[in-house]
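User: Can you help me understand a structure? I only have the sequence.
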Amino acid sequence: MDAPRQNGASLYAEVAARFPTYGAYPVAGATGSLDDALMVAEAIDDLADLTLNMREVLWFAEHVSLNDAHFVFRLHFFRWGQRARELSLYLCSRLFG
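Assistant: Let's start by predicting it. Here is the structure, written out as tokens:
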């Protein structure tokens, strides 16, 4: 059973309208070499992706089972876990400098 999924482009537009000043931010790969150049992430895209993933987890919890929701949460965590941490650092720096 698959969860219904909102169109990513429409959610991206909603997030961008709500946070118009958010944009690209630098991130460094924790497993990369110290000689590697910084990579760049995009806050609006990260927020939209995290929202889509969490909505899917909630859907599974409400329509299938908590065990399935937990599985989907852990499955998505491989992708968004690090990104959420990097995004939180970016948001914190915007708030507190």
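Now, to help you interpret it: Residues 8-96 form one domain. The mean pLDDT is 87. Let me know which part you'd like to focus on.
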